[in-house]
Input
Amino acid sequence: MKWRDLQQVFNDLFPYLRLDVESGHKSFIDRPLSALSRLTVPNSFDIVPDMTVDELEMAFQYEMGLPCRVLRRSGYTWLETAYTRRWSLERQNDKGAELSRDLR
Output
């Protein structure tokens, strides 16, 4: 699976959240996850709606060796979730939908 594919699956589950790799290089999005990992043997894990942003980012870091961050949509802007990192992914997504409701 490539990073771009993972982003799409994540976005299908949480349309008002975005998963970004913390690399600064856009070329990373077309590379397989195994090539991006800093671990010799990356582990897989489940992403569930009640998982917090903090738990998800830590799982990517420690299980897959991929530093990433979750952003929440607010209108036409993507906001970092630093102050709400203890919110669940579902709550973050709901808040993003609420903040973007008038744009539809």
